[in-house]
Amino acid sequence: MSIQNVGAVARIIQPASVEKPTSSKSAQETPFAQVLRQGVSSANQALKTADTSVQTMVETQGANIHETMIALDKAEIATRLTAKIGQKLVQAYREINQIQV
Amino acid sequence: MSFLHGFDVAASGLSVQRTRLNVTASNLANAQTTRTAAGGPYLRQQVVLEEAAARFQTHLGNASRVEVAAVEADRATPTRLVYEPGHPDARPDGFVEYPNVDLTQEMTDMLIASRSYEANATSFETLKRMALRALSIGG
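Output (structure tokens, whole complex):
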């Protein structure tokens, strides 16, 4: 578990509506960190879509209520999945930390 | 096939059933309309549904969405003729053409559309429950 992956975890725990910082990407990313980054960006995208659809629902006064609810549910699941992955990473890091030298 | 595509499939079902209900409501509201912009009485509208062409076949697998192909007038069923010589829209022989809207048929269509909507909503909720259950694997 490298330090870059912990950095990726810290970005997950931030509110997902914040734009993902791209300048702090390190040159070598492990494949798992890439997968994690894709997961976070897709969760971010789902949240943005949900925001837009809520705004559309307010503007059109509830024309497509079910589509808004479905977008919100998708965003919720994507966010929960990302948070869960973050928890698992931190847990694994702690366990490795506790290995006695 | 991921959960998110399953949600899209359920969402398309919900939209389509709502369109069907709108068309049924329009038929019921216009059941006695003898005058339309195109001339002649209102004709009962029908919704034709089709399986949407899967644009991303490799992702969707065998889950296909549904779309409204067309909303067409029913010209096969004959219009009702009622003898009312005093009606403003009466034909020269005294008959008035009323729309071919059958109340029983429309109420049945409405019931089917409403139950299908509930079924699609249930399938969506079940998918969501499955996804959340999967997230809790492993504690």
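Confidence is low (pLDDT under 50) at residues 15-25 of chain A.
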